[in-house]
Design a protein that fits this description.
about 725 residues; Alpha-Beta Plaits; 27 helices; alpha/beta; about 20% strand; Nucleotidyltransferase, domain 5; nine-stranded mixed β-sheet; exonuclease
C-alpha cells in the first residue's frame, strides 16, 4: 500500500507563533526534500515528504487573523478542515517577502551561474536587520554591548537572579568606555550527571594572544564527552586536577575591572562557568538576522575573516581558535561600522553557499566565493535571495495566480485576473499541473480600507469582551466583594471585577482573561450560594454568542483539548505532568502566562490523543483536588494561537474610546452584510479548490496580516495535507 504524507506539529499555547523564516523553512522542505539538502522544519514534521503530490499556498491578500475571527462563522470550510493553525508575523507585502527582493529577475537554473544584482536604493539597506538595530553610523564598542534587558532575554547569568544562586562575579565593576579592553572567551562542555559542565576554557586578549587555555575536571561523572564537538576525550581528562573554582579564581585575576568579554552565544559559556559578568558582546546577536535566527561562528569566520575554523578533519572544536575568531569578528564590526557589515549581505552569501553545495561542484563553490569576496570588498548594496531560486535550481516552475501586479516572468504562467471567480477558474485548471502553486485571493479595495479595519477591530474587541464577561447576582446591599472574587476566581484568571449599582439590587460585572473561564462560571455557579446570596450568572446579551461558543467547541483545533481551572499559580508544567500522569492518552499540556507580567495563571489546557480520552478526563478532573485546590474543567474553546490573541485584545480593550469610532462603526455596518457575503464566497472558492487537489497535497492558507502606518494586525496560517477523506491529515 502506498504511503501517505502526514503533517505533525505542536502548535499549542506559546508555541503557535511562527515567523516568515520558519514558514519558508517548511515550504522549502516540502518542495525540495532531503535530496536537495533541505532539512525538516524545526517547528513541525512532514512525514514521507517524497510522497507529496504538490504544495499549494493560498494567500488572502490584505487579510489578517482579525478577519478570520470576525467572520469565523462564515469561514465554515477553513475551520472544519485545517487542524493546524499558527499566528504569523504581519508583513507589508507577503508575496515580496516570499520571493525576495530579486523577484523581478529571472532566476538562474544552476547554483554556480547565480550572480548578485546591485541595488542602488539606500532604502534597501535600511531594511537590513543590522541597520534597524544599530543605525548607519559607526559607533564605539559600548554601543554594541548587551543591555541588562538583552542579557535577561538571552539567558545570561544576572546578579541577584534566583537561577544564579552560588554564581561568582568576575569583579569587573568599573565603568566601561569605548577604549575598554576586549577579551575573547570560549568554553567546551561535556554532558555530566549535573548537566553541561566546563571541561576546557580559553581566553585571548585584544591582540589575539592566548592568556588561558586550560582543561577542567568536572565535578560529576561524564555521561557524554561530545568529542565530535568538544574535542574532549576520557584520556585527556584523566590526569587533570584543575577544578571550576580554580578557573573562576584565575579569570578574576586575569580580567581588568573594565574588561568587556566577547564570545559567540557567550551566555552558554558564562552559565557553564557559573560566573556573572556585566559587560559582554555576543557575536551571534551582533550580526543580527531576521526573526531571531543566528549565523554560525564557522560561517562568519569564513565569510568575513576568510578563516576556516571547526574543520571536520579536526577532532572537535578548538576553544582558543573560537575565542579568537569571535574577538576578531567583534573588532571588525566596531572598526567597519554597521553600514559596511550590512553591505556584505551575509544572507545572500549563506544562501548561495547552500545552493552551490547542492550542485556538488566544489570548484564552482570556490569560484563563487571568490566572486562574492570581490563584491564584498567593493561593498555594493546587494539584493536579498529569492525563495524561488531554490525551486528553479531543481527545475521546478512555480505557478502564480492572483490580482496583485507583480512581475512573474520567472513563473510558469503570468496570470493577473480581475476577480476571485476568474482566479478560481484558472486555479482549477492549472494547479493540478504544477508541483508548487501560489494562489492569491482578495476581498477588493472597497473592503480593506484602514477605516474599515479599525471598525472591524473595535467590533471584534466588543464581541470578545461580551464573551469574556458575565454578570453575577443579585446580591444583598452589604455583600462581600472579596468573597465573590474568590469564588469566581476559581474558574480562571479575572481581568476586572466591578459592582453594578444601576440595578435595583447589586450585580457584579466580571470580565475574565480566557473564554473557558466565563463559560465555566455560567455552567457551574448557576444557583450557587456566593456571599450569602443564591446567584444566577449570565453572559452579556450578544447576537450569535451561543452559536459562536458551540462552533468553537466543535472546532477541529480544539479536538481532544480540555480547560482546567483552580490551579495554584506556583505550579510548574513538570508538577502538572506528575499530577495528571494517570490520565489516559495525555499528549501535552500548556500552562498559560500573563502576557504583561510573565506569571503563570491559575488554569491550564490538556491535549489528548483523541476526543474520547478528553471526555473521560473531564469526568476524572471535575471535583478532584490538586495540592488542596478543587479543580473545575470543560471543553476548550481557545486552546491554540487564539488564547494569546484574545489576551492581547482584552488587554488593549477600553484604551480607545467608543465615541471616537462611532462614525467608523456606522460606516462598517452599512457594508458589513456585503462583506459577510464576500467572505462566505471566498470560503466556498477555497473549498472548491481544495476538493480538486490531489491527495497528499500540502495546502497552506495564509492571512498575511496587515502592517501599515495605521497599525498592525497579526497574520494567521492554516495548514494540512489532504487525505482521501478530504480532510487535512495530521
Amino acid at each position: 500500500q502506498e504511503k501517505s504524507s502526514r503533517l505533525s506539529a505542536t502548535l499549542f499555547g506559546e508555541d503557535c507563533e511562527i515567523s516568515h523564516d520558519q514558514l519558508f523553512e517548511l515550504l522549502k522542505y516540502a518542495a525540495l526534500g532531503k535530496c536537495h539538502n533541505a532539512t525538516q522544519p524545526s517547528w513541525c514534521h512532514v512525514h514521507h515528504q517524497s510522497h507529496l503530490a504538490g504544495v499549494v499556498v493560498i494567500v488572502l491578500h490584505e487579510m489578517s487573523q482579525l478577519h478570520f475571527y470576525k467572520f469565523y462563522l462564515q469561514f465554515r470550510h477553513l475551520r472544519k478542515v485545517f487542524q493546524h493553525r499558527f499566528t504569523l508575523t504581519p508583513s507589508t507585502n507577503f508575496l515580496a517577502s516570499l520571493y525576495g527582493e530579486g523577484a523581478n529577475r529571472k532566476p538562474r537554473t544552476t547554483a554556480q551561474d547565480m550572480t548578485f544584482t546591485a541595488v542602488s536604493k539606500s532604502s534597501d539597506l535600511q531594511c537590513d536587520p543590522i541597520i534597524q538595530k544599530y543605525g548607519l553610523e559607526k559607533q564605539g564598542l559600548t554601543s554594541y554591548t548587551l543591555t541588562l534587558d538583552e542579557q535577561k532575554k538571552n539567558g545570561y547569568p544576572i546578579k541577584g537572579s534566583p537561577q544564579c544562586k552560588g554564581f561568582i562575579c568576575t569583579g569587573c565593576d568599573q565603568q566601561r568606555t569605548d577604549s575598554s579592553p576586549l577579551f575573547g572567551l570560549d568554553c567546551e562542555m561535556c554532558l555530566t550527571a549535573k548537566g553541561n559542565e566546563v571541561t576546557r576554557v580559553s581566553l585571548v586578549d585584544a591582540q589575539g594572544q592566548c592568556l588561558l587555555n586550560e582543561l577542567v575536571k568536572p565535578e560529576t561523572a561524564v555521561v557524554n564527552y561530545r568529542t565530535r564537538f568538544s574535542g574532549i576525550t576520557k584520556k585527556m581528562l584523566l590526569p587533570v586536577k584543575t577544578r571550576l573554582s580554580d578557573i573562576q579564581t584565575r579569570l578574576k585575576k586575569l580580567l581588568p575591572r573594565d574588561a568587556v568579554l566577547v564570545g559567540h552565544s557567550l551566555n552558554c559559556d558564562l552559565q557553564a562557568l557559573e560566573m556573572i559578568h556585566p559587560s559582554v558582546i555576543d557575536t551571534s546577536l551582533l550580526f543580527a538576522r531576521n526573526e531571531g535566527q543566528r549565523f554560525k561562528l564557522k560561517f562568519l569566520a569564513k565569510a568575513i575573516l576568510g578563516k576556516e575554523i571547526q574543520c571536520e578533519k579536526k577532532l572537535g572544536h578548538d576553544s582558543t581558535e573560537d575565542a579568537r575568531a569571535a574577538l576578531e569578528l567583534a573588532q571588525f564590526f566596531i572598526e567597519q561600522g554597521p553600514a559596511k557589515v550590512a553591505e556584505l549581505n551575509l544572507e545572500m552569501l549563506l544562501t548561495t553557499e547552500k545552493l552551490a553545495e547542492v550542485s556538488g561542484n566544489k570548484a564552482a563553490l570556490q569560484s563563487q566565493r571568490c566572486r562574492i569576496q570581490k563584491q564584498l570588498n567593493d561593498s555594493p548594496h546587494l539584493a536579498k535571495p529569492c525563495f524561488l531560486d531554490c525551486l528553479h535550481v531543481t527545475g521546478q516552475n512555480p505557478l502564480l495566480l492572483g490580482r496583485q501586479e507583480l512581475d512573474s516572468s520567472d513563473l510558469r504562467q503570468s496570470n493577473l485576473s480581475t476577480s476571485n471567480k476568474q482566479i478560481l477558474r484558472k486555479a482549477l485548471e492549472d494547479v493540478p499541473l504544477s508541483t508548487f502553486s501560489i494562489i492569491q485571493f482578495s476581498l477588493g479595495p472597497e473592503y480593506i480600507g484602514s477605516h474599515l479595519l479599525a471598525g472591524l477591530c473595535e467590533k471584534v474587541r466588543s464581541k470578545l469582551t461580551d464573551m469574556l464577561t458575565i454578570y453575577a447576582g443579585p446580591f444583598e446591599d452589604s455583600f462581600c466583594l472579596k468573597a465573590v472574587e474568590k469564588e469566581f476566581g476559581k474558574c480562571g484568571p479575572i481581568q476586572s471585577l466591578t459592582v453594578v449599582t444601576e440595578t435595583y439590587q447589586p450585580y457584579v460585572h466580571i470580565q475574565y482573561k480566557v473564554l473557558e473561564a466565563a463559560q465555566l462560571a455560567v455552567e457551574i455557579l448557576n444557583g450557587a450560594e456566593v456571599a450569602g446570596s443564591c446567584i444566577k450568572p449570565v453572559t452579556a446579551a450578544m447576537l450569535d454568542c451561543d452559536v459562536l461558543i458551540k462552533e468553537l467547541e466543535l472546532d477541529v483545533e480544539n479536538e481532544g483539548v480540555i480547560y482546567v481551572a483552580g490551579l495554584k499559580k506556583s505550579l510548574r508544567e513538570i508538577d502538572l505532568y506528575k499530577e495528571f500522569s494517570q490520565l489516559k492518552d495525555l499528549e501535552t499540556l500548556f500552562l498559560p502566562k500573563d502576557l504583561q507580567n510573565g506569571k503563570h495563571r491559575n488554569c491550564c489546557f490538556l491535549k489528548f490523543q483523541n476526543s474520547q480520552s478528553a471526555v473521560e478526563a473531564l469526568e476524572v478532573i471535575n471535583g478532584c483536588t490538586v495540592k488542596g485546590r478543587k479543580l473545575r474543567s470543560r471543553h476548550a474553546l481557545a486552546s491554540g494561537h487564539l488564547w494569546r490573541w484574545i489576551s492581547q485584545m482584552s488587554d488593549s480593550n477600553g484604551k480607545q474610546g467608543r465615541h471616537t469610532l462611532f462614525e467608523k462603526l456606522e460606516q462598517l455596518s452599512d457594508s458589513e452584510q456585503d462583506l459577510r457575503k464576500e467572505v462566505k464566497k471566498l470560503d466556498q472558492h477555497i473549498e472548491k479548490l481544495y476538493r480538486r487537489l490531489q491527495n497528499n497535497t500540502l495546502c497552506i492558507v495564509l492571512f498575511p496580516g496587515v502592517h501599515s502606518m495605521h497599525g498592525s494586525q497579526s497574520g494567521l496560517g492554516l495548514m494540512g495535507i489532504k487525505d482521501d477523506r478530504g480532510r487535512s491529515a495530521c
